[in-house]
Write a structure and sequence with these properties.
With 127 residues, the chain is an alpha+beta fold. Helices cover 31% and strands 18% of the residues. The strands form 2 sheets. The protein has a 3-stranded antiparallel sheet, with helices on one face. A two-stranded antiparallel sheet has the order 4-5. The chain is flat, with a radius of gyration of 15 Å.
Length: 127
């Protein structure tokens, strides 16, 4: 008696939870002290659920010991697609890489890894 979409949402969210908990455990096992919050660069990224915004957290650095699911560590909400990346040293010295983004038609393109969701959104509005 449960809608298929509700089943998918539950399974997706629980899998994301298990994956992110495993990642957090590995951060602690490897004595990693900080992580960066990474939101998906597309139009589906949440702009605010229950006072939280995945887009606003993108690029922020947090202490592993302060990680809280739904506050500063994913999943933030059902169907959350955010993740994290370990910070190994001084992030100002880290090499710049690329990250994927999606345009309004869902086509993938690439931007600098230093581009935050807010910057991506602002640039998207200009084009």
């Amino acid at each position: 008696g449960v809608a298929m979409s509700s089943c998918r949402r539950l399974v997706y969210t629980e899998c994301a939870y298990a994956q992110e908990q495993a990642t957090l455990t590995r951060y602690r096992d490897a004595d990693i002290k900080r992580y960066e919050f990474i939101a998906t660069l597309d139009n589906k990224t949440c702009a605010g659920v229950d006072g939280h915004s995945c887009g606003n957290l993108d690029g922020q650095i947090f202490d592993v010991d302060a990680a809280q699911i739904g506050v500063n560590y994913p999943p933030m909400h059902p169907n959350c697609r955010c993740t994290t990346a370990a910070i190994f040293g001084d992030e100002d010295e880290e090499e710049e890489y690329i990250r994927a983004a999606r345009d309004e038609n869902g086509k993938v393109y690439y931007v600098s890894s230093k581009t935050t969701y807010a910057q991506w959104r602002q640039n998207k509005r200009k084009s």
